[in-house]
Amino acid sequence: MPNHLIHETSPYLLQHADNPVDWHPWNAETLQLAREQDKPILLSIGYSACHWCHVMAHESFEDEAVAAVMNEHFINIKVDREERPDLDQIYQNAHYLLSQRSGGWPLTMFLSPDGTPFYSGTYFPKQARYGLPGFPGLLLNIAKAYKEKRAELADQGKQLISALASWQPEKSEQDSELDVSPIKTAILQLNQTFDRVNGGFGDAPKFLHPAELDLLLRHAEAAHDEQARFIALFTLQQMALGGLYDQLGGGFCRYSVDASWDIPHFEKMLYDNGLLLGVYCDAWLSSNDSFFARVVEQTAAWVMREMQSPQGGYYASLDADSEHEEGKFYVWQRNEIRDLLGTDEFEFIKPHYGLDSTPNFENHAWNLRVSKPLSEIAQQLKLSEEQALMQLSAIKAKLFAAREQRVRPGRDEKILGSWNGLMIAGMAKAARTFNRADWLQSARQAMDFVRNTLWQDGKLLATHKDGKTHLNAYLDDHAFLLNAALQLLQTEYRSIDMAFAAQLADALLERFEDKENGGFFFTSHDHETLIQRNKTGQDNATPSGNGIAAQALVRLAELTGDTRYSDAAERCLKLYFPVMQKASSQFCSLCTALDETLRPPSLLVLCGADNETAAWRAAVAAQYRPGLMIVTLTGNETGLPAPLDKPRTSTTTAWLCRGTQCLPPITKLVTLLEELA
């Protein structure tokens, strides 16, 4: 018989609906049940693309004997961390305090009926190994401790709640005077942790750090810092040459298990790829290296081919596993490739993808990565770079077609507001950078889906699947979608996107801002009461909601002239400024917002006939200008905010404003380029 998850929409929860475990979703009824039966809660948090979540499910949650122990002693709750990031944040923090080690997924928490945690871990094997206790024995020990040591656990719980509260930023007694010191410190700290051999920061496992790379490129451009530019470009190059990047189909996996980007955990997440699209656009603009342009093109193609729903929204993720094996869809036996290709093609590709060396994955398989540059192979074979690229493309097409015949990894078809915001922003920026109407159309369709489906009765909801839209939206949903609307407006102005941007920004201020201290809570003022109400400024796999909210509000204030938005951004920065000074590189998205507050973006408004303004915009956008917003108008728009409402002219005209100072109208492109230079 299915358990209580059978009516959920989350693919992750539905994966567990037929477990013998009596799983419940997180809701008021389940929490009341725990109180009535006076049982501790076993809370398991994961997501559908998570490899170790699948392992623990197969070992323990599908086992009748383990399920019997769970059902006898606990109220068992399953949570999709992508639907309930509020719960995930709280209990990851609690896990760190309880275990003094960072968490991950699956997250396994044991809670009192009021939600206070008293024991935690991540993956537990069925039998003791990896230095971890066996799960069934652990369950019995925890059930016994809960019965016999209630007073001790209650005292520990009070201390834990107090410790969680102490992590929240507090308003300084003195009004902080904002300056550039956190930005300088962040660049210095990133320089110190930079891996000069492989790119990236620190040792294995290696994560993607898009907020850090964005800050490095911005700083490099503003300060003419070639070392910062090198760190960013070299890291982006090494990531895309490695096995972290899908060399055949485009798109990046979540992280690399090794220091040299060879072997990833193979799940592909929408949020990583949305963020990286934008950063690789900037890398191309900053370097004019066509390698970065190809990465953007391949990743955008993957997004449209595999991640966009027929209704327009973008799906959440692709699984790491297929046929119960991690990476099976992506890796190759050397003989497979040899049999697919002719001798000449195989000899061409063998050194490029490292097939002439030892296997780099399990079962004597290869996860493809670039081991020898195409330029060297072209030189050896006396081919031009263009000829070598054409030959490589033909070979990759054959391998890709063969791979498409394999059993595909599962796809999580939830449509999340926050992650759609990140991908819409990335696709809109890529469309603007490379003048691609198809990418712009993809981004528009996704934004239209979000506005028509997730925005209901003046309120944003977090997730949609199978015709059901539900759950209060979080800070990240509002901030990331606001940023996406601003990216769309700069690619092609639509009044409907401007109106939606204002609605999202007003909701941020009304429903999330801490009016007394500054900054934005992760959950809205009318959200379910939990054991903690987070206000997060650090960047993780995604930039912090406070950082992106502050960036977007500063830019929206420039577009609309409404200082409510920039004032809220400044209050946010003043709240976080003391902690930004101490651990600057953990707050890179807030550092970017700080930079834009201290040096407000310039606004360029172009107005005229489509063909002429397109040429002007292309000329301006051909350079990396992170501090410039460009809005192109036809002259037929109505209801424009004051900074955009320019006089109609018979010739193409540019209005360039820096802060509160605007230049006289410019009617020659060469004059505009001189001013910008």
CATH architecture of the largest domain: Alpha/alpha barrel
Largest sheet strand order: 1-3-2-4-5
Radius of gyration: 26 Å
Biggest sheet features = 5 strands, mixed
SSE layout and pairings?
Elements: H1 11-15, E1 23-24, H2 28-37, E2 41-46, H3 51-61, H4 64-73, E3 75-80, H5 85-99, E4 107-111, E5 117-121, H6 135-148, H7 150-166, H8 181-193, H9 210-223, H10 226-241, E6 255-256, E7 264-265, E8 268-269, H11 270-287, H12 290-307, E9 317-318, E10 321-322, E11 325-326, H13 334-340, H14 343-352, H15 374-380, H16 385-403, E12 411-412, E13 415-416, H17 417-434, H18 437-453, E14 455-456, E15 459-465, E16 468-472, H19 475-491, H20 495-511, H21 545-560, H22 563-582, H23 588-598, E17 602-607, H24 610-621, E18 628-633, E19 653-658, E20 661-662, H25 669-676
Parallel strand pairs: 1-3, 2-3, 17-18
Antiparallel strand pairs: 2-4, 4-5, 6-7, 8-9, 9-12, 10-11, 13-15, 14-15, 15-16, 17-19, 19-20
Helix pairs in contact: 4-6, 9-10, 9-11, 9-23, 10-11, 11-12, 11-17, 15-16, 17-18, 17-19, 18-19, 19-20, 19-21, 21-22, 21-23, 22-23
Outline the structure in words.
It is a single chain. With 677 residues, the chain is an alpha+beta fold. 50% of the residues lie in helices and 11% in strands. It contains 25 helices and 20 strands. Strand 17, helix 24 and strand 18 form a beta-alpha-beta unit. Helix 11 packs parallel to helix 17, helix 17 packs antiparallel against helix 18 and helix 18 packs antiparallel against helix 19. The chain is globular and about 80 Å long. The mean pLDDT is 96.
